């Protein structure tokens, strides 16, 4: 049984392909080595996510998106080389943020019984524009372009129908859309920043189809020619080739190295023009006009600091002591995280509930009035707060975000995310409450990105509760409250100083201590840079909260 070649590809699901490196690595490679990239591209299917650099900030200090993802539309006849051109563009880009290659074949319409019968008889025209759900295609692409999450349909070419499940996609900085009808629909064309048409000789396209279908699919030459004459050639003449007039660039279907280099140069320039230096802006805002002896909520209603009782001050004394035993540090971190989670629970909505006590009396109390509640931890420093949250809310679902600083600029990069189901589905996210966990808010850059990710998924600001050990009064929290006034922040202490420093100057070679092995391995050992000048030339700028508690994720 034969079906159009554009349909028969093995593209049943989107594959996540990442360079082989530990997911928790502290260093982020800016480029994939050529061998690794070639292997990834050879394994890639039509719908592909390629991650080589991470997504940089795409918003300003007010939390507003300042640019969309860069979208490239590639159209052309069947077997003209569209997928090859898309992959070559990715190769030529080199060090790039996250790229999504999206195929139109995911958006074939859901078929009824009559269409299914025709499809299994090889009598359904999959090359006609009516076979594609163009409104859904445009809606999903618009979400991805705007930086929002999208759920892409999965089409089963074995069953000739769309499946009930979808594939979750988020975080694209560059989107490449390829398909024979990629330039046909005006709503799709309006979303493209660059439109490409792959022009190839008809004889060459037919020869490629015959070789491919005979070699890879075991078809007969007679069947291939019948299919080509019945559906493929008429569709190309009537619908595909006329869309070439909308293209910004016509790329030859072979010997197109020069054209691809020109396209890659243009895309790189556009991405560089969109670069932001968010962290430096946040670090220079100056201290909040707060008297730390006065109630903080008078100046910042959405910032809640735990009451500074002697017990809490005793806990912070142990956590701030660089000579504290590691076992003590872990124990009191768990205690503090539990206190913070219990305080954060006060900001969830409750409703009255009437119960009967064991002695037969009636008691009117409260119960949670939420559809979904979950946690999201910013790796790795958010991990210590997870234990306290699990103690307070039984069986809570906790996801994670991996946000790390870019080596040369210090800007936060979104490298990985694994979110609970209630956030991945936008209709559920609108009714979900999320505890966002991180050890501290310094410049606020990671907090900004994490909150922006939740907003992109449809979580309301008022449903986000940021739980943290320490907030720097001189840091990004001042801008954070202006950008996201609905987000509540619950912290254990408000530290007054945010000091500018250099990563290598503050970094030490661990494991060289001669003292008690039970003590925390923080702030001891030998600096990796011999002089400050050496650190400034080799390192990147960082901002340190003082008095602070150090890099808590590395202490546990």
TrEMBL record:
Pfam families: PRK (PF00485), UPRTase (PF14681). Residues 71-253 form the Phosphoribulokinase/uridine kinase domain. It comes from Ganoderma sinense ZZ0214-1. One of its GO terms (molecular function) is ATP binding. The keyword Phosphoprotein does not apply. One of its GO terms (biological process) is CTP salvage. Its EC number is 2.7.1.48. Residues 308-500 form the Phosphoribosyltransferase domain. Belongs to the uridine kinase family. This is Uridine kinase. Residues 514-539 are annotated as: Disordered. It comes from the Eukaryota. It is an enzyme of class 2 (transferase).
């Amino acid at each position: 049984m034969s079906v159009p070649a554009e349909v028969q590809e093995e593209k049943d699901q989107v594959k996540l392909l990442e360079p082989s490196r530990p997911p928790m690595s502290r260093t982020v490679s800016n480029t994939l080595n050529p061998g690794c990239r070639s292997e990834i591209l050879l394994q890639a299917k039509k719908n592909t996510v390629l991650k080589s650099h991470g997504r940089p900030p795409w918003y300003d200090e007010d939390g507003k998106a300042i640019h969309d993802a860069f979208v490239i539309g590639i159209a052309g006849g069947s077997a003209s080389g569209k997928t090859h051109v898309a992959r070559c563009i990715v190769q030529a880009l080199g060090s790039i943020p996250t790229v999504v290659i999206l195929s139109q074949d995911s958006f074939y319409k859901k078929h009824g019984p009559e269409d299914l019968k025709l499809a299994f008889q090889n009598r359904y025209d999959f090359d006609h524009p009516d076979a594609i759900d163009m409104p859904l295609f445009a809606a999903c692409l618009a979400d991805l372009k705007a930086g929002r999450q999208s759920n892409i349909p999965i089409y089963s070419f074995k069953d000739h129908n769309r499946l009930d499940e979808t594939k979750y996609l988020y975080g694209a900085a560059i989107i490449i859309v390829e398909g024979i009808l990629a330039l046909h629909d005006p709503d799709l064309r309006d979303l493209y920043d660059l439109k490409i048409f792959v022009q190839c000789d008809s004889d060459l396209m037919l020869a490629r189809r015959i070789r491919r279908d005979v070699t890879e699919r075991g078809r007969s030459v007679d069947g291939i020619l019948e299919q080509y004459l019945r559906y493929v050639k008429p569709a190309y003449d009537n619908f595909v080739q006329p869309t070439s007039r909308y293209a910004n660039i016509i790329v030859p279907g072979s010997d197109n190295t020069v054209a691809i280099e020109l396209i890659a140069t243009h895309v790189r320039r556009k991405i560089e023009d969109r670069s932001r230096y968010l962290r430096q802006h946040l670090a220079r805002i100056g201290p909040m006009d707060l008297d730390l002896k006065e109630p903080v909520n008078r100046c910042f209603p959405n910032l809640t600091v735990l009451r500074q009782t002697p017990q809490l001050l005793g806990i912070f004394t142990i956590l701030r002591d660089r000579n504290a035993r590691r076992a003590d540090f872990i124990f009191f971190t768990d205690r503090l995280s539990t206190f913070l989670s219990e305080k954060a629970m006060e900001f969830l909505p409750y409703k009255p509930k009437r119960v009967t006590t064991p002695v037969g009396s009636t008691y009117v109390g409260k119960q949670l009035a939420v559809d979904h509640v979950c946690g999201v931890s910013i790796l790795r420093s958010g991990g210590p707060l997870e234990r306290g949250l699990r103690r307070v809310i039984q069986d809570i679902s906790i996801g994670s975000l991996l946000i790390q600083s870019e080596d040369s600029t210090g800007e936060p990069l979104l490298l990985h995310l694994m979110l609970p189901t209630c956030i991945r589905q936008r209709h559920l996210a609108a009714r979900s409450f999320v505890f966002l966990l991180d050890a501290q808010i310094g410049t606020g850059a990671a907090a900004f990105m994490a909150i922006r990710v939740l907003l992109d998924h449809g979580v309301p600001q008022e449903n986000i509760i940021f739980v943290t050990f320490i907030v720097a009064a001189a840091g990004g929290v001042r801008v954070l409250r202006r950008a996201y006034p609905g987000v509540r922040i619950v912290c254990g202490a408000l530290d007054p100083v945010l000091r500018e420093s250099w990563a290598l100057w503050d970094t030490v070679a661990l494991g060289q201590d001669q003292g008690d092995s039970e003590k925390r391995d923080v702030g001891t050992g030998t600096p990796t840079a011999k002089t400050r000048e050496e650190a400034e030339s080799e390192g990147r700028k960082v901002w340190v909260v003082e008095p602070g508690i150090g890099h808590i994720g590395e202490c546990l």
